[in-house]
Amino acid sequence: MNTDDFMAYLGDFPAGYVQYGHATEFCNVWADFYNLTESDLFTAAIYYNFNEGDFPWEYSSGADSKI
Q1: How far apart are CA 52 and CA 35, in angstroms?
Q2: In the chain, fewer beta carbons within 10 Å around the N or the C end?
Q3: Contact 5, 59 (CB under 8 A)
Q4: Rounded to whole angstroms, how far apart are CA atoms 46 and 48?
Q5: Confidence check: pLDDT of 40 > 90
Q6: Domain extent listing, the chain
Q7: Cα 41 to chain center, whole Å?
Q8: What's the longest Cα–Cα distance across the chain?
């Protein structure tokens, strides 16, 4: 995954909640994760996104991409 695709993937995660009026829900989901290291929090966020159907391979700006 290219760096810009990766950044788009990560940026869409919290931005989507805020953009669609669910900032409180976002905070509630992550309230119990405050004690994780940055690395573990990052891993948890990726797994959360994946389980919600937000797949990293959909963030490709390659020639055959829908982006």
Answers
A1: 23
A2: C
A3: yes
A4: 5
A5: yes
A6: 3-58
A7: 11
A8: 41
